[in-house]
Amino acid sequence: MALILVDGKEIAVKQGETVLQACMREGIEIPYFCYHPSLSIVGQCRMCLVKVEGAPKLLTACTTTVPELPREKKLDGRYDMKVSVACDEAREAQRGIMEFLLANHPLDCPVCDQAGECRLQEYSYDYGAPRSEFVFEKLHAPKRVVLGPHIIYDAERCIKCTRCVRFCQEITKTSELSLVERGADTIVGTFEGGSLDNPYSVCTADLCPVGALTYREFRFRERVWFLQAHNSVCPECSRNCSVRVDSYKGEVLRIVPRYNPSVNGYYMCDHGRLITERMRGLETRELPSLIRDGKPSPMNEKDFYARLVALFSEKKYRPGDVAVILSGRMSLEEMAAYKRLSKELFGAVIGDVLLRSGESDDLLVRDEKRPNLEGARKLGLPVSGKDEAVSSLIGGKKALLIIREDPVGEAPQEERERLDTAIGSVETVVVMDDHLTATAARAHYFVPLAGWFEMEGTTVNFKGQLQKTTRCVAPPEGRKPFHDVTAEFLKAAGKEAPSGFREWFEEVKKEIPVLGLVKAGEIPLKGIPLPERKEKHG
Amino acid sequence: MADIILFSAIKIVVVLAVVMGGVAYTTLAERKVSAWLQDRLGPNRVGPFGLLQPIADGIKFFTKEDITPGRSYKPSYFLAPMATLIPALITFAVIPFGESVSLSGKDHRLLIAEGTGLGLVYLLAVSSLGVYGILLAGLSSNNKYSLLGALRSVNQVVSYEVALGLGLIPLAMTAGGFDIDAIVRAQKGGVWFVVPHFIAFIILLVALFAETNRLPFDLPEGESELVGGYHTEYSGMRFAMFFMGEYANMITASALLVLLFFGGWHLPFLNYGWFGPVLGGILSAIVFACKTAFFVFFFIWVRWTLPRFRYDQVMHMMWIRILPLGLAYILVTALFLYLRGPIK
Amino acid sequence: MICRRPVLTIWEKLYLPSIAQGLMVTVRHLFRKRVTVQYPEERWIPPSYFRGAPILLTGLDGQEKCTSCKLCQFICPPKAITIKGAETEDHKEKYPEEFFIDMGLCIFCGYCQEVCPVEAIWLKHQYELADYDRTALIFDKKKLLEMGRMAPYLKGREKPVQGGGE
Q: Which of chain B's residues have a Cβ under 8 Å away from the Cβ of C32?
């Protein structure tokens, strides 16, 4: 352990830690562009220049590690290094660096999407000079370069910090990007004919401290200062990446990763971000409906639930007659609500959670493509096999209840028709989902549910980390999470039922006793790790 | 006898027509003069120079919805506008408006109620009746603003009735009777009473402003405090009757001032006898109308110049200032007349 | 604070001279020039600094100058401005696909004009904005640009506004 003195404050520095990291840890602000905790250190931007006593020149704080001096050589008998961050010399140097960085910057903040979350903007207020000595015409560089399917590059705004280059080399190890040309003409580019199309390419836009790399799908969509941020969880695989969902006027506009060392680190995959684009095409304005010939005819909510209750009490389905297909897209509360509902309706907990698997990689993407499969296992709901399991589940059943799954729409083309007729031949089909799916078109009853970003809920990832999603946008009129639908249903049947996320979370706590004293409103942003289950899941 | 009745009927019809027409055009004058005093143009859309505006107003009043507030006391609510307008109109019975006209050898006075000899007393009596309309309106409207307006009005009118009497008595003493004709006659050829009786003129002027509820004495309808005062709840033709009553009172007050202090229809160095019996009479009536019109203008002029009094100021002025002044002035006049001796 | 009332002489207490003075002041106005503008026949021409309805200006290339930076939308106190940005092949990269100003909400504060980095929005001469229909008060981009073309010359500029700009 070395001890350094930064502007009169003593900081203990660990072995290999740089001055910048030590200062950030202790809350001393040093401006920087190129440093990123998950990337290698290059000292590219020169913004973090600090004065080190005894050094002939200013040093970059991000690259300066602290050697432990022998006792007799310690400065003032104690310190291994004395650093000044706020001294005039360092400030003057930072001002000069800002001026160089802005020398050829187009200053097109009104058009630039980064405005509002731009390091260059912030530092220009905090460290920049009020005017520039560069009165000459600015150099022009390529603008609107399409680097990849989701990334557009503006070389004029680029400050060549190489974060994006290092990301591609070190994190994804695909090395699409590099600096090309020399001197003032340096730009970030791909190799001849190459394209930045790795599954994590949009992370480069997040890493870019200025507006040089922009995310094509969000480009010019909305200014960032209008956005409302919500902490949520990505539902695209069992990794459950912590994300920040930015919405405006009831529309989810952007999903960006939220730092969570125990789940996803700093990054998330492009597939998860593109939820916004996939959500855009969905028809979500459906009311509780009876389906006739694939077309919904909306009904009054109260009558609808009364009718459903009447149906189930009239037909008196025994557990063996009914197939229930549940989804890993349901939150823990919804699953707990289902268990309650199943006991009321059929006298036993029946139903299978569909396992949906797909590609995986060794960075973040997991093979299980549902967020809460681990949660289902924790609650003791059986997780079935793959797609072919669906038809075996349906075979010989009189009633079918499908929640948040679309077996028809997701089946391979050749199987689709078979599944379609199989479902069509069942006496009573009830589908609950957040949009009118291909399966819903075969149903007799359709109950619209609130979507993943439209409700509160908890979910458990493959490692057993419990996280909470928040309501990022309000669901359309008349659409509720499944646990509230259950409450409606039970009330229509004349039973008591908890209502709302908080009360249903109490139900979850009964199932998972480790949660113990955790309150629904006090789940930390990073989540709660649940202990490993004893038995192996199958 | 028949010709007297006929002539009386003609006089009543003509006077009523002139007064009602006068009222209509006084409203126009009010709006025009107020506009001019504020560098504006005033109504100028209906007819040439806006001259048909009163007719348009009349049509509007007649066709407007007549709103009766709930839980108002209906009989007096409906009676109140009439109780205001009628006294305002019947005061004209004792207002002489010109030199006598000789028709077929018979002298006819240009005065509806001939030969009463008690014109001033009648005037005082009838003008006090007008306050009942306001009182009824305020009490029966079921509106606190109306009630407050009516209270203020009654208090103010009753107080200034005293001032009215105090101003009139010296004139009656000088002229030797309560006949308005006699007062006019006393000014003929001589000095107008405004010169010797300037103090009485001021007292009477103030009293008449207060009696007619004109600014600076318009507390009963002070808009900033009481919305519309006693007529807040009235609309359409009922409101118009209050409105007309007020303007008729203003014309009466103007005519009275002309008669008592400005020589009535007389002009200095002018004898109506020169123009023959009929023409002289008509000419004198026109002169009288012109003088009255000036005072109507004066009323409007004052309204758009002075701000409203505070209520305590109104009462203070009457009971602390005008009352002693008026009484003293009666004494002085009496003393003067006693020393001068009886009129030859 | 105590306000001492001035001690008045008896002559002043009578108030009659003051009233007479007041009457003379008002009667003088009888002969002044009238200030009324006969509205439908005569139209008031506002001065160049007048803040009327906001307009959008076009640049020399005939395109709107607005780059859809939405600073006006952000600063607008009654939130009367709604802009939808989109990408364009032009040099400016971004342009307003839709630009709405709800004139029923606009309070004519001029913040949008002040904040605009490209001087695309100005509050100009137009003040006759009443309508029978609220939806007609929501001005779209086409209407705002049209109003910009109709606007008189900007103060201190030689060129007409539609040709103006840097």
A: 39
